[in-house]
Write a structure and sequence with these properties.
- Helix content is 18%, strand content 34%.
- It is α+β, with helices and mostly antiparallel strands.
- A hairpin with a 4-residue loop joins β4 (56-60) and β5 (65-70).
- It has helices at 100-106, 122-133, 140-147, and strands spanning 6-14, 20-30, 35-39, 56-60, 65-70, 88-91, 96-99, 114-119.
- The two termini are 19 Å apart.
- The strands form 2 sheets. A 5-stranded antiparallel β-sheet has the order 7-3-2-1-8.
- The chain is globular.
Protein backbone atom coordinates (compact mmCIF):
# COMPACT_ATOMS: atom_id res chain seq x y z
CA UNK A 1 0.00 0.00 0.00
CA UNK A 2 2.69 2.50 0.98
CA UNK A 3 5.11 1.64 -1.80
CA UNK A 4 6.91 4.74 -3.11
CA UNK A 5 5.19 6.01 -6.24
CA UNK A 6 1.76 4.65 -5.32
CA UNK A 7 -1.25 6.84 -6.03
CA UNK A 8 -3.98 6.39 -3.40
CA UNK A 9 -7.40 7.95 -2.98
CA UNK A 10 -8.83 8.24 0.54
CA UNK A 11 -12.61 8.43 0.98
CA UNK A 12 -12.28 10.54 3.09
CA UNK A 13 -8.84 11.55 4.38
CA UNK A 14 -8.90 12.80 7.98
CA UNK A 15 -6.69 15.86 8.52
CA UNK A 16 -5.00 16.58 11.88
CA UNK A 17 -7.21 19.67 12.29
CA UNK A 18 -10.30 17.44 12.44
CA UNK A 19 -11.55 18.14 8.92
CA UNK A 20 -12.14 15.35 6.42
CA UNK A 21 -12.47 15.20 2.64
CA UNK A 22 -11.85 12.81 -0.23
CA UNK A 23 -8.19 13.24 -1.14
CA UNK A 24 -5.50 11.95 -3.48
CA UNK A 25 -2.32 10.79 -1.77
CA UNK A 26 1.12 10.20 -3.31
CA UNK A 27 3.67 8.04 -1.50
CA UNK A 28 7.07 9.66 -2.00
CA UNK A 29 9.23 7.46 0.25
CA UNK A 30 8.97 4.75 2.89
CA UNK A 31 11.92 4.41 5.23
CA UNK A 32 11.37 0.74 6.04
CA UNK A 33 10.29 1.51 9.57
CA UNK A 34 7.10 3.38 10.34
CA UNK A 35 7.55 6.72 8.60
CA UNK A 36 6.31 7.40 5.11
CA UNK A 37 6.85 10.61 3.19
CA UNK A 38 3.77 11.78 1.35
CA UNK A 39 2.20 14.55 -0.61
CA UNK A 40 -1.48 15.38 -0.79
CA UNK A 41 -1.88 16.78 -4.30
CA UNK A 42 -4.26 19.66 -4.78
CA UNK A 43 -6.22 21.25 -7.59
CA UNK A 44 -5.45 24.69 -6.11
CA UNK A 45 -3.29 26.66 -8.52
CA UNK A 46 -0.82 28.93 -6.68
CA UNK A 47 1.48 29.39 -9.68
CA UNK A 48 2.03 33.06 -10.58
CA UNK A 49 0.62 33.93 -14.02
CA UNK A 50 4.00 35.08 -15.33
CA UNK A 51 5.50 31.56 -15.00
CA UNK A 52 5.20 29.10 -17.88
CA UNK A 53 2.86 26.29 -16.84
CA UNK A 54 3.40 22.96 -18.56
CA UNK A 55 3.29 19.39 -17.26
CA UNK A 56 6.27 18.75 -14.98
CA UNK A 57 8.46 20.78 -12.69
CA UNK A 58 7.85 24.46 -12.11
CA UNK A 59 10.66 25.94 -10.03
CA UNK A 60 11.50 29.60 -9.59
CA UNK A 61 13.92 30.30 -6.73
CA UNK A 62 13.62 34.08 -7.07
CA UNK A 63 9.86 33.95 -6.48
CA UNK A 64 10.06 30.98 -4.07
CA UNK A 65 7.84 28.73 -6.18
CA UNK A 66 8.32 24.97 -6.32
CA UNK A 67 5.64 22.78 -7.75
CA UNK A 68 5.17 19.67 -9.82
CA UNK A 69 2.28 20.22 -12.18
CA UNK A 70 0.20 17.28 -13.42
CA UNK A 71 -1.84 18.33 -16.43
CA UNK A 72 -5.44 17.13 -16.09
CA UNK A 73 -6.18 14.12 -18.29
CA UNK A 74 -2.52 13.26 -18.96
CA UNK A 75 -1.78 9.58 -18.22
CA UNK A 76 0.88 9.33 -15.48
CA UNK A 77 0.68 5.74 -14.19
CA UNK A 78 2.94 2.87 -15.15
CA UNK A 79 -0.11 0.79 -16.12
CA UNK A 80 -1.18 3.62 -18.48
CA UNK A 81 -4.66 3.90 -16.94
CA UNK A 82 -4.55 6.78 -14.45
CA UNK A 83 -4.65 10.52 -14.98
CA UNK A 84 -5.77 13.19 -12.55
CA UNK A 85 -9.13 14.48 -13.84
CA UNK A 86 -8.19 18.11 -13.09
CA UNK A 87 -4.95 20.06 -13.26
CA UNK A 88 -3.18 18.94 -10.08
CA UNK A 89 -0.26 20.40 -8.14
CA UNK A 90 2.29 19.01 -5.70
CA UNK A 91 4.02 21.81 -3.78
CA UNK A 92 7.43 21.09 -2.24
CA UNK A 93 6.67 22.81 1.05
CA UNK A 94 3.61 20.61 1.56
CA UNK A 95 5.45 17.26 1.59
CA UNK A 96 5.40 15.71 5.05
CA UNK A 97 5.87 12.46 6.98
CA UNK A 98 3.17 10.30 8.50
CA UNK A 99 3.09 7.13 10.57
CA UNK A 100 2.34 4.11 8.36
CA UNK A 101 1.00 2.15 11.36
CA UNK A 102 -1.40 4.96 12.29
CA UNK A 103 -2.63 5.16 8.69
CA UNK A 104 -3.13 1.38 8.57
CA UNK A 105 -5.08 1.56 11.82
CA UNK A 106 -7.26 4.43 10.57
CA UNK A 107 -7.81 3.19 7.01
CA UNK A 108 -8.35 -0.56 7.24
CA UNK A 109 -10.57 -1.40 4.30
CA UNK A 110 -9.43 -1.27 0.69
CA UNK A 111 -12.12 0.09 -1.64
CA UNK A 112 -14.07 1.48 1.34
CA UNK A 113 -11.57 3.71 3.17
CA UNK A 114 -9.12 4.08 0.29
CA UNK A 115 -8.33 2.88 -3.21
CA UNK A 116 -4.99 2.13 -4.79
CA UNK A 117 -5.28 3.84 -8.17
CA UNK A 118 -1.93 2.79 -9.55
CA UNK A 119 1.71 3.76 -9.44
CA UNK A 120 3.41 6.70 -11.09
CA UNK A 121 5.48 5.71 -14.10
CA UNK A 122 9.20 5.49 -13.28
CA UNK A 123 10.01 8.61 -15.31
CA UNK A 124 7.14 10.60 -13.75
CA UNK A 125 8.11 9.54 -10.22
CA UNK A 126 11.78 10.35 -10.79
CA UNK A 127 10.87 13.78 -12.23
CA UNK A 128 8.55 14.50 -9.28
CA UNK A 129 11.23 13.67 -6.71
CA UNK A 130 13.91 15.66 -8.58
CA UNK A 131 11.56 18.64 -8.73
CA UNK A 132 10.73 18.55 -5.02
CA UNK A 133 14.46 18.37 -4.23
CA UNK A 134 14.80 21.82 -5.82
CA UNK A 135 12.48 23.35 -3.23
CA UNK A 136 14.22 25.67 -0.80
CA UNK A 137 11.42 25.04 1.71
CA UNK A 138 11.59 21.23 1.64
CA UNK A 139 12.36 19.97 5.15
CA UNK A 140 15.84 18.48 5.54
CA UNK A 141 14.56 15.09 6.76
CA UNK A 142 12.25 14.82 3.76
CA UNK A 143 15.06 15.78 1.38
CA UNK A 144 17.17 12.98 2.85
CA UNK A 145 14.36 10.44 2.39
CA UNK A 146 13.82 11.49 -1.24
CA UNK A 147 17.54 11.05 -2.00
CA UNK A 148 17.47 7.38 -0.97
Amino acid sequence: MYTPGNILYFTPFHFPNGKSKDKYFLVLAHDGDDLITVSLPTSKDHIPNFLNKKHGCINDDQNKVNCYYFEGGKIISECRTFAFPLDTYVYGEQAHTLSASLLKETYKNTDTDYKILGRLSDSEFKSLKQCLMLSGSLKRGIRKRLEE
